[in-house]
Amino acid sequence: MRVLENLDRAVIAIDAQGVIQLFNPAAELNTGYSERQVLGRRYDDICIFDNAFTYLIQAALENGRSISTQEHIMLRRPIGKPLPVTISVAPMFVEQGKIDGAVLIIRDMSPVVKLEEAVRRADRMTMLGTMSAGLAHEIRNPLGGIKGSAQLMAMELPEDSPLNEYIEVMIREVDRVDGIIEELMNLSRPRTAENSAVNLSKVLNDIVLLQKEAHCDKNIHFILNLDPSIPELIGDERLLTQLFLNLIKNAAEAIEDTGAVTISTRITSEYQTRSEADHPASLIHIEVKDNGTGIPPETMKRLFTPFFTTRKSGNGLGLVMCQKIITEHDGFIKVDSDPAGGTSFSVYLPLRR
Ligand SMILES: Nc1ncnc2c1ncn2[C@@H]1O[C@H](COP(=O)(O)OP(=O)(O)OP(=O)(O)O)[C@@H](O)[C@H]1O
Ligand SMILES: [Mg+2]
How far is the CA of 207 from the centre of ligand 1 (A)? Predict the structure, then answer.
């Protein structure tokens, strides 16, 4: 019994009638049900057991087969998000092959799923790098040709020609494509990070000064809540500036007319990460919060995908860049958004590296 209580896998036992007889603490943790709520109830009374589970349990109870799922099944829970799990179901026998019930072992796969997602993101970045280097080379030369020709044409036309307007558009759009390529190349260029002591408060203050100017056509209130006790951070100042500029710019862009962008820093006790020497390091939490449009759930999934943008003049590379810089600084990023208004991006960076 002690073994089951301390096991990190959820173990649930049911009798031949499908009534739950055992529900260990890991099962409580994973399903969100307490032992008291489920003991003595039939398994199909409880909403976490949907079709996939029912099929496996029936196979065990009726045919005496042991089955495990290879793929992740989503465990629905009374509160919280569905949990990706794998399950094994094994029948229990009494004498002469008579089936007396079944044991379910459920394994929480969410750490694996998170890791897989991180690997996929990293893979996408590598592919993006190779592609963009080739692309940049092939596109930049003809682009230069188009821009040069447009400029020559402009010189040939009389000043009052209505065609001048088209030429301006041509040149502007060529510059835009060139800008995208430049950004892509910045993303993929292997860099040796230049580590120095960075004063985060100064970086954030400077960015806000500039962003106030850039968005002076709107009524945005920039609020800085900076913890003065945060020591200097070891990192690449240029990259960190770019990171927070992207986030603050996004926040300001999410505000249509009037609103507030709040930037806070604090040392957090919420998370601990392990540095190379295996000492736990504290994390600095930098939050960029706005009360703008918010992000609908279907957009949320695609935020960090290269070229995903909902903005007329966006390139969809800002957050990809942010992710890369944060990874280079051994940190991580979280997003919370209320589609009814307001988004918060939280960056966590380790204090000692
Ligand atoms: N604070 C925010 N509030 C609402 N939506 C946001 C916010 N930040 C990002 N987004 C959404 O995420 C998308 C991707 O952001 P990202 O910064 O990667 O690209 P972008 O801002 O569109 O273009 P750029 O390459 O110029 O930064 C945005 O188009 C927007 O839809
Ligand atoms: Mg952006």
Answer: 17
Residue 140 shares a structural domain with residue 61: no
CB 348 within 8 A of CB 283: yes
What pLDDT is recorded for position 272?
53
Residues with CB under 5 A from ligand 2 (ion): 250, 318
* pLDDT score for 22: 93
pTM for the whole structure? 0.61
Separation of alpha carbons 141 and 180, rounded Å: 15
What is the per-residue pLDDT for 191? 63
Range of the domain at 167: 113-188
3-state secondary structure of 207: helix
Q: Is the CB of 179 under 6 A from ligand 1?
A: no
From the list 55, 52, 51, 46, the residue with the least C-alpha distance to 28 is 46
Q: What is the per-residue pLDDT across 179-210, written as a single tens digit (0 to 9) for each?
A: 888 877 777 666 666 789 999 999 999 999 98
Nearest CA to ligand 1 atom 28: 309
Give the residue with greater pLDDT, 272 vs 67: 67
Last residue of a domain, one of 108, 136, 162: 108
What 3-state class would DSSP assign to 156?
Answer: helix
